[in-house]
Q: What sequence folds into this?
């Protein structure tokens, strides 16, 4: 069992894209109202006085689209300087990165994962509902120029939509020191698309890449769920996140904090969530809040969605953006 030292923090549940696999256009979503979002001060209090003392040292900012949170650069600057924090990263769709990348780097952010599901602007438009491929590509280049290293690109692979691009996306790592990570498509908030398209497992993708260039398994293992490989002689690496075909609950090192302050011990199991916003606003003693989170840490191995639960549940009631993907 890994120590749980990693918190994914949703800064906002809204998004400027409408990816078909995440927040499809027309879906009736209830967004968190402004007054219910954790304020900057509340979030900083939770990180500084609850999570860091309990051994959480790595934080990833996500959403929704984290960069549309008002004042995001200032907030990041304050988070980055919290004593005890060892790693601060962000997952973004990169729409605002061309402008914000240098400021984010200066604020203290050092690692960025960017969603890029296609190299074809038209397929990109079909997936994200936005005609913004060019702008996103500029954002990726700006992040690289600003010094973000390693730069990771996330690809959710959907059969019949972008699976034919797997080799082109993998080829980005040949000449660039980038990490391209293929994520198995999950049935969260997208029942219709999932039912219609299905999903493709990581081993099938690896086989295609192996046939084209060969593939070596990396001795290096990150602290996340990705299995890391490399095309022989390539500058960058390939990651495979196989939460559908593999069960990695036993090495899970994370919890999630939603934009409205719900602490969730497992992505797929709704048991045990704690309402930390309520606790803060009722001025509950922080020692009690810490004890409640410590108790949840103790219970997490039992709460984790395991192989035993697979097959019993195929769709989940909260979407990625509500949970903090
Ligand atoms: N807006 C940011 C972005 O797109 O990178 C951050 C939030 S997004 C919810 C975080 C990650 O979840 C992205 O890498 C996205 O591709 C992934 N994701 C969303 N829905 C998914 C699904 N149904 N299956 C697998 N991954 C998904
Ligand atoms: Fe927005 Fe990211 Fe979800 Fe796409 S994957 S809709 S960019 S939150």
A:
């Amino acid at each position: 069992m890994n120590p749980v030292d990693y918190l994914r923090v949703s800064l906002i549940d809204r998004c400027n894209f409408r990816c078909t696999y995440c927040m499809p256009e027309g879906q009736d979503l209830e967004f968190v109202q402004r007054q219910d979002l954790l304020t900057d001060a509340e979030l900083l209090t939770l990180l500084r006085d609850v999570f860091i003392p309990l051994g959480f040292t790595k934080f990833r900012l996500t959403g929704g689209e984290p960069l549309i949170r008002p004042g995001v650069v200032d907030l990041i600057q304050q988070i980055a300087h919290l004593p005890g924090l060892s790693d601060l990263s962000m997952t973004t769709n990169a729409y605002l990165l061309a402008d914000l990348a240098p400021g984010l780097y200066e604020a203290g952010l050092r690692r960025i994962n960017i969603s890029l599901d296609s190299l074809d602007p038209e397929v990109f438009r079909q997936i994200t509902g936005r005609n913004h491929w060019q702008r996103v590509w500029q954002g990726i280049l700006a992040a690289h120029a600003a010094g973000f290293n390693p730069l990771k690109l996330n690809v959710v692979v959907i059969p019949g939509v972008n699976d034919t691009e797997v080799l082109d996306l993998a080829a980005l790592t040949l000449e660039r020191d980038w990490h391209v990570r293929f994520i198995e498509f999950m049935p969260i908030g997208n029942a219709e698309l999932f039912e219609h398209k299905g999903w493709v497992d990581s081993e099938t993708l690896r086989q295609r890449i192996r046939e084209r260039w060969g593939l070596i398994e990396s001795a290096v293992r990150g602290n996340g769920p990705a299995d890391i490989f490399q095309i022989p002689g390539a500058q960058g690496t390939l990651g495979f996140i196989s939460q559908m075909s593999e069960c990695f609950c036993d090495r899970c090192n994370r919890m999630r904090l939603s934009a409205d302050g719900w602490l969730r011990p497992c992505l797929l199991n709704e048991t045990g969530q704690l309402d930390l916003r309520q606790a803060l606003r009722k001025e509950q003693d922080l020692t009690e809040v810490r004890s409640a989170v410590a108790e949840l840490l103790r219970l997490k191995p039992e709460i984790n969605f395991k192989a035993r639960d697979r097959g019993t549940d195929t769709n989940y009631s909260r979407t990625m953006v509500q949970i903090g993907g």
The radius of gyration is 19 Å. The first strand starts at residue 6 and ends at 12. The mean pLDDT is 91. Residues 6-155+249-323 form a domain with the TIM Barrel fold (CATH 3.20.20.70).
